[in-house]
């Protein structure tokens, strides 16, 4: 789940991304929000791809780059 939220934050920004992931209902995920779909057992990858498609994210950004550790200030 943390992998999903990191991708959401990286792509959309924290508050906006979290709002969209908990409010946008996607028919491809059985009329669930992305957050509900993950809780229901859909894979993070499947949810992320459908969320990106729904939000018109360019296809080259549908699969996240290698996860790099975040720098701490």
Task: Tell me how many strands there are.
Answer: 0
What's the total helix number? 4
User: Mind telling me the C-alpha Rg?
Assistant: 12 Å
Specify the helix fraction band: 40-55%
Query: Which ranges are low-confidence, i.e. pLDDT below 50, for 5 or more consecutive residues?
Result: none
How confident overall, as mean pLDDT? 87
Structural features, described:
This protein has 73 residues and is mainly alpha-helical. The chain is 52% helix and 0% strand. Helix 1 crosses helix 2. The longest helix is centred in the first third of the chain and has 11 residues, at 2-12. It is globular, with a radius of gyration of 12 Å.
């Amino acid at each position: 789940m943390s992998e999903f939220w990191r991708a959401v934050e990286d792509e959309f920004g924290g508050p906006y991304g979290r709002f969209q992931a908990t409010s946008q209902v996607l028919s491809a995920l059985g009329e669930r929000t992305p957050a509900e779909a993950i809780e229901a057992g859909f894979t993070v990858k499947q949810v992320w791809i459908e969320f990106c498609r729904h939000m018109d994210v360019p296809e080259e950004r549908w699969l996240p780059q290698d996860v790099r550790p975040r720098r701490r200030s």
